[in-house]
């Protein structure tokens, strides 16, 4: 019997190599080649059989001006936070890919959403390749979904799944997970690059031709990226990432790509005994509850998609000896080093012999430069040992020349802060509102030394 031929496939780009290499010759990624079985050349002929050709219908070439453009009809899922991330709800014929760490709550959230849609009168289907129907039923009872009429199918064969979708014609179908689905047309094992790419392509075509909204659950690698080829994210309409620590009760769902809504939108959930519940006021979980103001703490308003969030920035400055450390959690470490240099040069605050630790409370990650001013004021407050005033907040980008630059959508940030009871704000001059905001005293500054002088007068 002839020996089975093996090839090495890149998990990033899907390129192949006849032997193992440390670096992929196609996309130059390191340590991404994995061993797999070579495909049977005869199997490829069946990919163009009539059953697959019928999924892609021919279309005439039309000018953009002649095409009637209407807004996509959205169906709410019954979970406000999930609808926010999706852009308002599910879209007919849309394909959603959701990934996250094991046990983070992907299957739980989708089962809850399917039950809400089913109770709203929609036909739903849950295809599970990792659990039996009894396990899904047991989980639904644990979540309090008694009497749920969501249809469940335990299957991993692609042709049977496509046939079931055609017969039952659900409005929403969940495939949990895409890494377990396989096609007989390919000889590689389920979860391989070729299988994931091929199965996702056929499911996407089926969604576009039939109008069913398909939600694909994807595994993630140890680095947190979606497993399989990157082309998987290009094929679908929406990509969602589940984030959060399994030891914490809070979960974040972040939109990385959305053809029907805003990207970088965020939904906040709390894990309870009855499943995931939306958090309507997420700022509360990012703010520490101090009875009195403490040194080294400054509140800022950051933007997550279209939502303003209040986050507490904490700084601790301590004697560091000959080799001081600079450590940041939730913020860019290189930017922290830059801000310390600006503090020294333009404001006369020297931390050369001090350890500096900066933390964004609640596990949130802040990537926007609008946190610069809050970080610098928190560091100065910790160094002097004097707390900032009660109800104080600040935001703004700080440049290398010491100037305080405006942050985008400053009015929305200030209104959110006033709504939550904050009374004093230090903002860039360009973000100062033309009309006063009730209950909020706003101080506009142009340079970092002005901000520090102002804070000293308020303390």
TrEMBL record:
Q: Which Pfam families match?
A: ATPase, Zn_ribbon_LapB
Q: Which UniProt keywords apply?
A: ATP-binding, DNA damage, DNA repair, DNA-binding, Hydrolase, Metal-binding, Nucleotide-binding, Stress response, Zinc, Zinc-finger
Q: Which GO terms describe its cellular component?
A: cytosol
Q: What SUPFAM superfamilies does the record point to?
A: P-loop containing nucleoside triphosphate hydrolases, Ribosomal protein S5 domain 2-like
Q: Where in this protein does the record put region Lon-protease-like?
A: 355-459
Coiled-coil residues are none
Q: What does this protein do?
A: Can catalyze the hydrolysis of ATP in the presence of single-stranded DNA, the ATP-dependent uptake of single-stranded DNA by duplex DNA, and the ATP-dependent hybridization of homologous single-stranded DNAs. It interacts with LexA causing its activation and leading to its autocatalytic cleavage.
Fill in the domain comment. The middle region has homology to RecA with ATPase motifs including the RadA KNRFG motif, while the C-terminus is homologous to Lon protease.
Q: What name is this protein filed under?
A: DNA repair protein RadA
Which organism is the protein's source? Polaromonas hydrogenivorans
